[in-house]
Amino acid sequence: MTEPHPAFDRRMLEALICPQTHTTLEYDAERQELLSKAAGLAFPIRNGIPVMLVDEARKLD
């Protein structure tokens, strides 16, 4: 069985920070997003590449 989308390299989490708050991010594998709880934003991962633009982020509930 193949993955429905290209895999996100979890090692990137060590290097990526929230562009708004400069805090660490959490990986949500199910939704393919990187979460910034401090900013209340979820950054999408498209084709295995995180889109770290605040304008592209979804607001967390």
TrEMBL record:
Return the InterPro entries for the record. Trm112-like
| Highest taxon listed in the record's lineage | Bacteria
PANTHER family in the record, alphabetically? PROTEIN PREY, MITOCHONDRIAL, ZGC:162634
**Family of this protein:** Belongs to the UPF0434 family.
Tell me what this protein is called. Answer: UPF0434 protein FGK63_17515
User: Source species, please?
Assistant: Ruegeria sediminis
Give the source lineage, highest ranks first.
Bacteria, Pseudomonadati, Pseudomonadota, Alphaproteobacteria, Rhodobacterales
